[in-house]
Structures
1.
Amino acid sequence: MKKTLFDKVWDSHVVSSVSNGPDILYIDKHLIHEVTSPQAFNVLEEKNIPLFRPNQVVATADHNVPTENQHLPIQDALSRKQVTQLTKNCESHGVTLYGLGHPYQGIVHVIGPELGITQPGMTMVCGDSHTSTHGAFGTIAFGIGTSQVAQVFASQCVLVGKPKSMRVSVSGDLHPDVQPKDVILYIISKLGTDAGTGHFVEFAGSVFEQMSMEGRMTVCNMSIEMGARGGMIAPDQITFDYVSGREFAPKGHELEQKIAYWKTLPTDKGASFDTEFEFDAADIRPMITYGTNPGMGIKIGESIPELDDASFIKSLNYMGLKAGTNMLNLPISHVFIGSCTNSRIEDFRAAASYVKGKQKSPSVSALIVPGSQQVAKQIVAEGLDRIFEEAGFVLRQPGCSACLAMNDDKIPAEAYCVSTSNRNFEGRQGQGARTLLASPVTAAAAAVAGKIIDVSHPNGKI
Amino acid sequence: MEKFDILESSMVPLTVENVDTDQIIPARFLKATDRNGFGKNLFRDWRYTADNQPKADFILNNPSFSGSILVAGNNFGCGSSREHAAWALADYGFKVVISSFFADIFRGNALNNGILPIQVTPDELKQLFEVIETNPGTKAKIDLEAQQLQVIGSNISVNFELNDYKKMCLINGYDDIDYLINQKEAIEAFEQNRS
Ligand code: SF4
């Protein structure tokens, strides 16, 4: 039978199936962080059971850490307790931790790939919905709740029904100013936030074949925003080149063997999907969201739709925006470039190349938060730090930061923030904050102009 | 986990669509290291003003509506995987959530915490909202064994889906973790076979 990439990886990880119920799916790598793991460690202690495969668990502290003075004790008592608890739990259960101060620390979905922990054909889980990011490698990666974190601790497996399959193809040539973030925001704006429910999505077509690994990660990262459990892209030479040579990647003969296996993973010609969508790359332009779910996105310059729907109107009221108007020239006061969607080196290169030689608008606070210590180091090595600092941007230390505003990096009520993160929910970036999701270049351009501009439009290029 | 068999309760209608987990429990309340006490911050920013005054127009602050069944708009529980959302609902006292659509991770988290997510059609959801709003004390009876939801004093009756395994877990109060621990031999054999 012809199989999809998803089928191949899934089927090779099924230990057994519960009759008329879920599969027992074996998990190769389990990533954990301070916020969704403590209650799971408590379960092990309450039940007095050991952590089954500590070598397959990797921990970091990212969600709830400050992005300044990481060498000092964390000031907020509750946050400090949570991070300390993670350290203690990892020590007593033999789990490798890349905590604050470690050169490998960073956002869990940034460090997995950059350390070579993430590899094609694997199954990966983490108590975080954006685990879908790792699907860029042809990996089945999905977010789980804390009860399931405990289950993986106890058995290295999860009980989960096999999702349906969906393929989203985008072919043709992208407009030169279109970024991977625009591609995924465009797809979600067309399909809606529940189109993927119950599905695993494969992104296919020439646009993804030509995209860099970092771009693919941005796309797969947001598959959860279309409701899917995860997204995947077939591994190819770009993937193999990215993985080769990384710290925990296979080496030498083992790598050759793995690559031979990884080459068998792409979807067979003629394999069928439960659902299929196709888009033309030429239709995509830089995108921005105007509402309080990631499906509420438009091309910059397009008008906000007019819908007679209570939830839609509630959302626009929260955002302080009007149906039928467009967002061009909307004054903004905050810019956040970071999060597991867009905090890799290519994102900062793209932003810096726009910012170089310009100044941010005096009315804007612009925050740059690298996804990991390694990205932070690279920013300095390439001199991007000077470009940002000379332009008046503030460069911070790695963490989730204003993506979910658990730490002090909060956006004030009613302020507009152009953010490269993945969620524009009410209050996500701080109580009352108004988030406009966009690419790193659009965010950088907004910081410079002090308002929304279209970088793909000739007048947008100042 | 508590056993679930038959539940009879009045309902709380939350007509908003796309209720995401950040609304159910905002991130700033995720700093706890145990799973208790989240109920007081359930829907925090819809329930209270910034200076902690109850907002009169929010449904949980309306004394006409109470009960352990939450009836919510389409696509409930989208967003993050935080199980704190399910803990907050359970801690507040909800045992059932009815909607025309649930996000996958939320559905799993709810079931793992003894909360039954019942998916109805958009039409059925509309009817439910109508009867509750016309008559706030309206009760529903949920019979898990029969997989049936009945609105008492009306002709609304829905047969809902639930896979046999999850049904068995809820009825008996079993957790997935116990099931998996019992599979250890099979899991070890699987590991052996693939290496
Ligand atoms: S950056 Fe944001 S979305 Fe990504 S893991 Fe952190 S909190 Fe979650």
Note: Residues 5-160 of chain A form a domain with the Aconitase; domain 3 fold (CATH 3.30.499.10).
2.
Amino acid sequence: MTFLIDSVRSAILLVFALDPELVNIVAVSLKVSGSSTIVAALLGVPLGFLIAFERFKAKRMVITVLNTLLAVPTVVVGLFVYTFISRRGILGAFDLLYTQKAMIIGQVILVLPLVTALTIAAVSRIDDRYRKTAMTLGANRLQTGWVVFREARFGVVSAVIAAFGRVIAEVGVVMMLGGNARGFTRTMTTAMALEYDKGEFTLAVALGIILLALSFGLNILFNLFQGRSRI
Amino acid sequence: MLYEISQLKQIYGSRTVLDIHLLEIQAGGVYALLGPNGAGKTTLLKILAFLETPSQGTIRYGAETVHFTESRLQLLRKTVVLAEQNPILFTASVFKNLEFGLKVRKVPKPNRQAIIEGALDLVGMRAFIHAPAHRLSGGETQRVALARALVVSPRVLLCDEPTASVDAEHQAAIVRILRNINLEKKITVILSTHDRFHAQTLAHHTLYLNEGILTGESEENIFRAESGILQDGSVLLTVGGVLRLPLPSDRIPSAGPLRIAIDSEKILLVKDGSGIFATVRQVGDAKDKIRAVVDAGLPIVLMLSRKTYRDQAPMVGDRVGLAFPPESIRVL
């Protein structure tokens, strides 16, 4: 028990002292996860919206495949991307392995099905009367789509926040594709795994506290946004 | 002529929900569409609103024969608005809800405020202009939805059961609004309703839909019946299991189940102790007629001339005799 309290105390000191190594790890984590979330959102939100809004034959099949992809373990994604970007892979010439770009690619692939599936769920939940109302008021297809999207905005923001939560907390992809290089590709989760291996818990606990604080902050932000948007 | 519909069918799977041989709607009129649940009223309104494409048939709208391509329908929808039975307002202010139709029509921003205020004045909701739409009551929502439809100055306003889900105060207001916009703005109004009273007080024309078929302008009393051939060759109709009506044999194609309509204006009140006995349940004013509902084991509506009403004076609770001349019964 004393050990835990000591770890937490040291961790809090580390956080408030803005330890350079800690700051660097957090910055890399935020940069990589933020970038991958933005890319995944830019691809997944329109894709999810189109799948939910349009009527086409293989719709059910597409949704089933997406739901299946939600369960893919991070190490499988890591391995999959590794085969492409390793020196022997078809993208080997780009020298991406153990770079932040590789980590972003891996995280985008990991989280794209999640953003898409949650966007589909958010848009599908929207009452069909919104679509019909927009149409009868003379809206074209694009304007009708915008009305539906606007009504689904809280669900879509939830999807993006869930995606960020998934990538910031995952360890498999960043470890396999980033390599946990100090000051370069070391993220909060890979650093925590390393510190655990070394038996050094102070930095790991400090990073754990930051991770939880980030998640808490994001939820507060989302609730504020939701409250203000509903007038 | 505003709409001219011929040989129109709407088929969902194996079910024909609409089968209209001919329907003509004049510009500037108020049309009430009456009929039981599932009669096809909403489907017809959606087709008239160009939101649904019929399976078969042709529609002439104004001077053009409607081609059911999305781009064409979208243009036509700019002149016709459907206000749904349970309207939904966008999650925004009342102002933004009304502004949507104007934005779509590219009405310049500086002009929008005055147009929106005018539409809200029509429905008595101007005080709510900046209110969040999702906080309005059911009746207020219905009125704002009506204003949202009117703000775009449509040629035709289609209303699906506009008074069904609001209280009496809002019902009266909605009826008044519909009458005013028809009179003042010359907007053609087509509304579906269950309420014959509203239909009669508001509409110039009443259309009756039953199982997707237009059955005439004033028919009530639609029943399932069983026909049987008697020994003398005449036919006995058993209506709803309680009412037995003899008919000449040439009126029924064959024995078995069928649907009949009894013309409420052709049923006779008899005083000589003959006929089928019934108890008067309701008597009310219906424009130039008196509408009585009697209980003969099943509710039957009679439309009496004012003279018959004065002569016979059926009072609520009275036992009366009914006679059903063969011409009052029509096989559907």
Note: Chain A has a mean pLDDT of 90.
